[in-house]
Amino acid sequence: MATTEEIRADLAEIVNEVAGIPADDVQLDKSFTDDLDVDSLSMVEVVVAAEEKFDVKIPDDEVKNLKTVGDAVAFIERAQNG
Amino acid sequence: MTDLIDRGGSAHAAILGIGTYRPHRVIPNADIIEAIDSSDEWIQQRSGIKQRRWAAPEETVQMMSVAASRTALERAGVEAAQIDCVVVATVSHLLQTPAVATAIAHELGTNKAAAFDISAACAGFCHGVAMASDMVRGGSAKHVLVIGVERLSDLTDVGDRGTAFIFADGAGAVVVGPSDEPGIGPVVWGSDGEQFDLIRQKEDWRDVLASDHPSMPHLVMQGNPVFRWASFEMAKIAQQTLDRSGITVDDLDVFVPHQANMRIIDAMARSMKLPAHVKIARDIAEQGNTSAASIPLALDRMIEDGDAKSGDTALLIAFGAGLAYAAQVVKVP
Fold first, then answer.
1. Please, what CATH class does the domain formed by B2-179 belong to?
2. Which of chain A's residues have a Cβ under 8 Å away from the Cβ of B231?
3. Which of A16, B66, B125, B287 has the highest local Cβ count within 10 Å?
């Protein structure tokens, strides 16, 4: 099972690919919109890439609850364990 | 038992000529932003659109179609009288019947060609090309004129933050006819009516008329789910289309997706892993999203700019309200 840090690092790579944000900036306490400047369309791309990478489903309704990188990592951890 | 004769058609079909019409009014973002409390920067960041073309009153659906068609006929070296069928893809000819295609066929001087409109929204042009190719190969027609035309400015709510900056006007036409080599590959098309409400006319005419204050039923759209579907599901359809034509992305010269939004175009290209040599249509920056007209407008611009040459292999993929989609590989005329 992937550790929290492994998931964060993989997600950071995705955010870097989609939005060009340095992967090191993508830390658990960072807000996607306020801190990382990931807009709603980029967020859709991040979500789709994350679904593929982590083999989970992230429903549209859930996306708005993923405000921080930590929220997204926690959701992915729960989805993988569930 | 009486046998019927099957006349058959040409072994292959191709696009023989292309023509377009761009309305004269250029509308920069600066003219849009006040009504939606937005900025030039936000619109460009969100859509890649810098300006769009909106038709003047005299630039009607019919007028723009005829102008684009005359250029297409001339470039194809085909007389109007040789056209057997006129197919018009549009959702913004506001006279519901008869089909505008009949008036266009008449004004062009066809010999009373078959003429009808199809309603497949932004996917309409590629539906028309697929049908025309089948008509030519099936023997129903020798030359078919396919027109994609819109005046979406008539259907745009200028106060809607989600759509006011996107939609635009214009026309594109191609002549499809017989060919010695395959010039139009097999279509991959389909629909997903479960997502009927994602892009639609806000309400039907009966509801409009029942209202105390009847007003134009504008186009409405749910941006994020449309973005997701278009960027990722359509990238899969693009790959299927290449597979069906027996080619890979490496064989492509030109990629002409429906000009819906620059962000969708970029996401599709990334998702498809297009090699760097493939030229990508980006007409939307200066033309806006012209629905059924966007693919011929974008392809014609690439030809003008030297980004697409005669004989190049181009992937066309159109998608939109329905949700409906159609795609095919063609040879650039």
1. alpha beta
2. 44-45, 48
3. B125
